[in-house]
Amino acid sequence: MENIQHSLGSIIKKSRLDQHITQEELARAVDITPRFIMAIENEGKLPSFEVLYKLIRTLNIQADSIFYPERKTNDALLTPLLHAIYRCNEKQLRVLTATVGALLDEL
Predict the structure, then answer these.
(1) Hey, where are the domains in the chain?
(2) What is the 8-class DSSP label of residue 32?
(3) What span, in angstroms and rounded, lies between the C-alpha atoms of 90 and 68?
(4) 1-71 fold
(5) In this predicted model, what pLDDT tens digit does every residue of 22-53 receive, in sequence order?
(6) What is the pTM (predicted TM-score) of this model?
(7) Which residue of 2, 14, 50, 64 has the fewest C-beta atoms within 10 A of its own C-beta?
(8) How far apart are CA 104 and CA 94, in angstroms?
Protein backbone atom coordinates (compact mmCIF):
# COMPACT_ATOMS: atom_id res chain seq x y z
CA MET A 1 0.00 0.00 0.00
CA GLU A 2 2.95 2.30 0.62
CA ASN A 3 3.83 2.45 -3.09
CA ILE A 4 0.25 3.42 -3.98
CA GLN A 5 0.27 6.16 -1.36
CA HIS A 6 3.63 7.55 -2.50
CA SER A 7 2.72 7.25 -6.17
CA LEU A 8 -0.63 8.98 -5.71
CA GLY A 9 0.91 11.85 -3.77
CA SER A 10 3.66 12.31 -6.34
CA ILE A 11 1.24 12.29 -9.27
CA ILE A 12 -1.07 14.83 -7.65
CA LYS A 13 1.79 17.10 -6.63
CA LYS A 14 3.43 16.98 -10.07
CA SER A 15 0.16 17.70 -11.84
CA ARG A 16 -0.66 20.55 -9.48
CA LEU A 17 2.77 22.14 -9.87
CA ASP A 18 2.78 21.66 -13.66
CA GLN A 19 -0.46 23.64 -13.78
CA HIS A 20 0.83 26.32 -11.39
CA ILE A 21 -1.93 25.62 -8.88
CA THR A 22 -1.29 26.19 -5.19
CA GLN A 23 -2.31 23.73 -2.52
CA GLU A 24 -4.80 26.31 -1.30
CA GLU A 25 -6.37 26.70 -4.76
CA LEU A 26 -6.63 22.94 -5.24
CA ALA A 27 -8.08 22.45 -1.77
CA ARG A 28 -10.74 25.07 -2.48
CA ALA A 29 -11.59 23.45 -5.84
CA VAL A 30 -12.11 19.99 -4.34
CA ASP A 31 -13.60 21.17 -1.04
CA ILE A 32 -10.93 19.93 1.37
CA THR A 33 -8.32 21.67 3.51
CA PRO A 34 -4.88 22.70 2.23
CA ARG A 35 -3.44 20.62 5.08
CA PHE A 36 -5.10 17.50 3.64
CA ILE A 37 -3.66 18.25 0.19
CA MET A 38 -0.22 18.47 1.82
CA ALA A 39 -0.83 15.19 3.65
CA ILE A 40 -1.83 13.43 0.40
CA GLU A 41 1.18 14.80 -1.47
CA ASN A 42 3.83 14.39 1.21
CA GLU A 43 2.65 12.01 3.92
CA GLY A 44 0.96 9.25 1.97
CA LYS A 45 -2.56 9.99 3.16
CA LEU A 46 -5.23 8.41 0.99
CA PRO A 47 -8.28 10.46 0.05
CA SER A 48 -11.81 9.10 -0.08
CA PHE A 49 -13.11 7.99 -3.46
CA GLU A 50 -15.13 11.21 -3.73
CA VAL A 51 -12.06 13.38 -3.10
CA LEU A 52 -9.90 11.29 -5.43
CA TYR A 53 -12.53 11.69 -8.15
CA LYS A 54 -12.53 15.47 -7.67
CA LEU A 55 -8.72 15.59 -7.72
CA ILE A 56 -8.52 13.57 -10.95
CA ARG A 57 -11.14 15.75 -12.64
CA THR A 58 -9.79 19.06 -11.37
CA LEU A 59 -6.19 18.31 -12.33
CA ASN A 60 -7.07 16.45 -15.56
CA ILE A 61 -5.07 13.44 -14.41
CA GLN A 62 -5.29 10.24 -16.41
CA ALA A 63 -6.72 7.67 -14.01
CA ASP A 64 -4.43 5.04 -15.54
CA SER A 65 -1.41 6.93 -14.23
CA ILE A 66 -2.74 6.39 -10.70
CA PHE A 67 -4.02 2.84 -10.97
CA TYR A 68 -1.31 1.53 -13.33
CA PRO A 69 1.80 3.57 -12.46
CA GLU A 70 4.05 0.83 -13.87
CA ARG A 71 2.79 1.63 -17.37
CA LYS A 72 5.25 4.20 -18.57
CA THR A 73 3.98 6.54 -21.25
CA ASN A 74 5.45 9.62 -22.77
CA ASP A 75 3.11 12.02 -21.01
CA ALA A 76 4.50 15.01 -22.88
CA LEU A 77 3.20 13.51 -26.12
CA LEU A 78 0.19 11.59 -24.89
CA THR A 79 -1.45 14.04 -22.50
CA PRO A 80 -2.24 16.82 -25.02
CA LEU A 81 -3.56 14.23 -27.45
CA LEU A 82 -5.84 12.70 -24.83
CA HIS A 83 -7.11 16.11 -23.77
CA ALA A 84 -7.99 16.88 -27.41
CA ILE A 85 -9.78 13.54 -27.73
CA TYR A 86 -11.80 14.15 -24.58
CA ARG A 87 -13.11 17.40 -26.09
CA CYS A 88 -14.43 15.64 -29.22
CA ASN A 89 -18.09 15.02 -29.82
CA GLU A 90 -19.32 11.65 -31.10
CA LYS A 91 -19.03 12.56 -34.79
CA GLN A 92 -15.50 13.88 -34.32
CA LEU A 93 -14.52 10.70 -32.47
CA ARG A 94 -15.76 8.54 -35.34
CA VAL A 95 -13.78 10.57 -37.89
CA LEU A 96 -10.71 10.60 -35.66
CA THR A 97 -10.88 6.85 -35.07
CA ALA A 98 -11.12 6.13 -38.80
CA THR A 99 -8.34 8.57 -39.61
CA VAL A 100 -5.96 7.20 -36.99
CA GLY A 101 -6.73 3.63 -38.06
CA ALA A 102 -5.98 4.44 -41.71
CA LEU A 103 -2.82 6.31 -40.76
CA LEU A 104 -1.53 3.45 -38.62
CA ASP A 105 -2.23 0.97 -41.42
CA GLU A 106 0.06 3.02 -43.67
CA LEU A 107 2.95 3.33 -41.22
Answers:
(1) 1-71, 73-107
(2) S
(3) 27
(4) 434 Repressor (Amino-terminal Domain) (1.10.260)
(5) 999 999 999 999 999 999 999 999 999 999 99
(6) 0.68
(7) 2
(8) 15
